[in-house]
Design brief:
The chain is α+β, with helices and mostly antiparallel strands and about 325 residues long. The chain folds into 2 domains: about 10-140, SMI1/KNR4-like, CATH 3.40.1580; about 150-335, no CATH class. It is built from 12 helices and 13 strands. Bound molecules: zinc ion (2 copies).
Length: about 325
């Protein structure tokens, strides 16, 4: 599945089959979400870089969907129940990419109905929370791209020269939301930082790429002073492209942009998203050494720990860039 587009709707028959097995109706928020898209992801309003994968409903309408949805809500619920601390009346509905955290709903013991509160289960602590976030429901609903604003398959997403994948970093997502610049619902929305006087910051990828959002609201996505990390001078057109026509990324401190070979580097993402083979290659050697120094890690176990630990479990982030000319990697450690 291309993660830039949400999966197809869940057939009503598949929803009914699931409800029959559960012996209860799904809460409306989930039912509506499944009716527009069977699975896919949505952001977490409580944690900016977190993304939830909604467990699909098993759909036997064709082989492709059967295969895609084989690991469904029931599958994940069975897995969750293997942990004795997971509530016996819980139904697992989503997990984060590490699988350590899950969202679930519960059956009301008296009525047997499934309540619409969404709770969080954390495998590390074994704890689960009372309603995790009311606004999570809004996030689920927002990720539900209405039929009318499904992304136009004929319209290719703009390519950002200095940004590998804004969907992976989480600043861009599929959404039914309207762009605050062009007023159109394109099926995608940007939700990263934008420095301007006004409050507008939710734009479609096209209004970012062609500079119209930055021009209309007189703002910038990335701090122009941080392009080159204050260490190298770059041509003005490069600084403008990064600050005005390139998405930002979620960071603790004001973001900076690594540069090399008299050009801005390409943002490859937080280190957790960067290809392991690339990080082990020769062009990464200096970067690895510098990162270990800056993060006070030894090059052996410390570095391995960094590769094995998701960013949200660290007190710092590591942003990685690649040179568009010589292939060298660079970046910096972002302390919380
Ligand atoms: Zn737009
Ligand atoms: Zn270079």
């Amino acid at each position: 599945m291309n993660r830039h587009t949400q999966p197809p709707p869940t057939p009503e028959s598949a929803l009914r089959a699931l409800e029959e097995k559960l012996g209860a109706a799904l809460p409306p928020i989930l039912r509506n979400r499944y009716a527009t898209s069977n699975g896919g992801s949505f952001g977490d309003p409580r944690k900016r870089d977190a993304e939830w994968q909604l467990h699909p409903v098993f759909d036997s309408s064709d082989r492709k969907q059967m295969k895609r949805t084989a690991e469904d809500v029931l599958h994940y619920t069975r897995l969750a129940l293997q942990d004795a601390r997971f509530p016996r009346d819980g139904i697992s509905i989503a997990h984060d990419y590490s699988m350590y955290r899950q969202l679930f709903v519960r059956r009301d013991p008296a009525s047997g109905n499934i309540a619409d509160d969404i709770l969080l289960f954390d495998v590390h602590t074994g704890e689960w929370s009372a309603p995790y976030a009311g606004d999570l429901q809004a996030a689920i609903d927002q990720a539900r791209v209405p039929e009318a604003v499904q992304p136009d398959p004929a319209r290719a997403l703009p390519v950002f020269r200095y940004y590998a994948d804004p969907f992976e970093s989480g600043v861009m997502r599929t959404s039914g939301e309207t762009c605050q610049c062009c007023g159109q619902a394109t099926g995608y929305i940007y939700d990263g930082s934008f420095y301007a006087i006004g409050d507008e910051s939710h734009f479609c990828p096209w209004c970012i790429a062609d500079g119209s959002a930055a021009a209309k609201f007189d703002g910038e996505f990335n701090d122009a002073a941080g392009v080159g990390m204050g260490e190298v001078e770059l041509p003005m057109r490069v600084i403008e492209e990064v600050s005005q026509r390139t998405p930002s990324f979620f960071s603790w401190q004001q973001e900076r942009w690594w540069a090399h070979c008299n050009d801005a580097g390409r943002f490859l993402g937080e280190i957790e998203h960067v290809d392991r083979a690339l990080l082990a290659s020769e062009p990464a050697a200096d970067f690895v050494r510098e990162t270990c120094d800056d993060a006070h890690l030894d090059a052996g176990e410390g570095w391995q720990w960094l590769l094995d630990t998701p960013s949200r479990e660290r007190s710092f982030a590591v942003f990685v860039f690649g040179c568009l000319h010589c292939g060298k990697l660079g970046g910096y450690v972002d302390l919380s």
